[in-house]
Amino acid sequence: MIDLHSHILPGIDDGARTLEESIEMARLAVKDGIRLLAATPHHNNGRYSNESYNVKQAIDHLNKELNRLSIPLKLMPGQEIRINDLFWGEWEAGNLLTLNDSQYMLIELPTQHVPRDLWDIIHEMRIKGIVPIIAHPERNVELANDLDILMELVKAGALGQVTTHSLNGLFGRRIRQVALKMCERNLIHIVASDAHNPDQRPFGMSEAYGMIKRKFGEAYVQYYRANAVAISDNRDVEVWEPRKEEGRWWIFGR
Ligand code: FE
Fold first, then answer.
1. DSSP labels for 14-83?
2. Structural domain 2-232, CATH architecture
3. Are 65 and 19 in contact (CB under 8 A)?
């Protein structure tokens, strides 16, 4: 299994604090069935800055440790990049990483709102050959309140990544409902853990896939899993047609 979002690198953001904690997380990842894991530390979010070179160094180091300890987990490079005014300067400077050096980039929105220029940024990214993946849209207040905005972003060329713990209920009932709704409306293209630590926020991938299977069927599990493989191999993902809210459509349709 592949997981494309984690904070496993030690001491560089709000994820694992020490190498010991990183190793503990790696063991938990393997236990959960993960064999390939993107390390995606926060970048440019106002608190943490982790440039491409430093992230790759840290990944090399941790991969060697995992190898030495015979833990069957391989880390691939990435970042969780906050969208703000620094973005294009950082891109030009070569400080940004895509997921496993593919065309796919994991981006993070502010918690409360959707930046007004996000559409322009997505458009510009697609022209430059970058496919943005919006990290946990279910945790953004504006997107959670109006799923049609996410639908527009998906139509503009962005992908959506739901976080396992949102589906598993760690962030409460409402976020869980929003996450499920986003899956149901085909606004989600991959499932990832956003694991931060071994205790409160580990991986939860098997649990989340189990829930997706129960709620939406095996085809959705296969869809998400195949997309994660496609991203790590830098192939095109499959994008199912986003759906309008059925209730609302029905009301307007009468
Ligand atoms: Fe994250």
1. SS--SHHHHHHHHHHHHHTT--EEEE--EESSSS----HHHHHHHHHHHHHHHHHTT---EEEE--EEE-
2. Alpha-Beta Barrel (3.20)
3. yes
The CA 43 to ligand 1 mean position distance, Å, reads: 10
φ, ψ for residue 45, nearest 5 deg: -95, 15
Structure tokens that stand for 119 in this block: 């559409």
Count Cβ atoms below 10 Å from residue 177 Cβ, excluding itself.
Answer: 14
Instruction: Report the chain's mean pLDDT, rounded to a whole number.
Output: 95
> What are the Cα distances from residue 249, in Å, to 180, 198, 252, 254?
19, 43, 5, 9
Distance 39 CA to ligand 1 centre (A): 10
Taking the centre of ligand 1 as the mean of its atom positions, its distance from the CA of residue 40, in whole angstroms, is 7
Instruction: Report the separation in Å between the CA atom of 7 and the middle of ligand 1, taken as the mean of its atom positions.
Output: 6
Q: What is the CA(31)–ligand 1 centre distance, in A?
A: 21
Residue 88 neighbours by CB distance under 10 Å: 13
120-145 mean pLDDT:
97
- Expressed in angstroms and rounded, the spacing between residue 6 Cα and the centre of ligand 1 is 6
Q: Please write the tens of the pLDDT for every residue from 44-57.
A: 988 999 999 999 99
- pLDDT at residue 253 is higher than 70: no
Q: Which residues surround ligand 1, an ion (CB under 5 A)?
A: 80, 194
The domain limits of the chain are: 2-232
Tokens found for residue 229: 């493989």
